[in-house]
């Protein structure tokens, strides 16, 4: 048997965890699986932060070499940036623009993700540490939908 992987998102004060999310849309509401048209980001503002982590279950010996990056062709619209920080602790998500770095654009510069215990490997079912994401815009960002982003999470399994 092999590991099962799913993305989990945490939201709200006190941390409500949702395993197996269906989308990672950014918006003006701190909730999971949002519809951006219902919760648009106002030009010049930032989205609520997203606290994402990976959950591994079923039978495996070891998960290692966990990497996270953005890999897409269209990129950004004017004034739009996707920020990311790896291995952070959960905090109540905020719309205040954070000072995180731009998400890496290749596997070679990807964020190295740790287990929830702070190690480079996972040897029993459980979670990774958090990846904090936030979409930030400026006054020059055009109105309307942004380009779809392709986020990559890679790992080795033994």
Report a brief summary of the structure.
With 158 residues, the protein is mostly beta strands. Helix content is 0%, strand content 35%. The protein has one domain: Immunoglobulin-like (Sandwich).
Explained architecture:
Helices cover 0% and strands 35% of the residues. It has 158 residues and is mainly beta. The protein has a single domain, classed as Immunoglobulin-like (Sandwich), CATH 2.60.40. Strands 1, 2, 3, 5, 6, 8 and 9 form a seven-stranded antiparallel sheet that branches. The chain has a three-stranded antiparallel sheet with strand order 7-4-10, with no helix packed on it. It is globular. The N and C termini lie close together (11 Å). The model has no long low-confidence stretch (mean pLDDT 95).
The tally of beta strands, per DSSP, is 10
Main β sheet profile: 7 strands, antiparallel
CATH architecture: Sandwich
* Overall CATH class: Mainly Beta
Name the overall outline: globular
With helices defined by DSSP (H or I, 4 residues minimum), what is the helix count? 0
Domain module count? 1
Portion in helices: under 10%
Oligomer: single chain
The proportion of residues in beta strands is 35-45%
CATH fold call: Immunoglobulin-like
**What structural class is derived from the secondary structure elements?**
mainly beta
Write down the Rg: 16 Å
pLDDT < 50 runs, ≥5 residues: none
Question: Average pLDDT, to the nearest integer?
Answer: 95
- What is the succession of H and E elements? EEEEEEEEEE
N-end to C-end Cα span: 11 Å
Keywords:
158 residues, mainly beta, Immunoglobulin-like, seven-stranded antiparallel beta sheet, three-stranded antiparallel beta sheet
